[in-house]
Amino acid sequence: MASVIPAAGTLPWRRRDGILQVALVHRPKYDDWSWAKGKLDAGEHPCVAAARETLEETGLVVRLGVPLPSAEYPVLDATGGPATKQVHYWAACVTGGSGRLEHEIDEVAWVDVRAAHDRLDYARDREQLLALVRADRAGELGTWPLAFVRHAKAVPRGTWDGADDRGRPLDAVGRAQSATVSAVLGAYGVTRVVSSSSTRCVSTVEPYAVARGLRVRTRDSLSEEGFAESGDGATRQVRRLLERGEPAALCSHGPVLPALLGLLHARVEASPERGEHVAQRLRAAAGESMRKGEVLVCHVVGRGEQARVVDVERVDT
Question: Which residues form the signal peptide (predicted)?
Answer without folding.
Answer: none
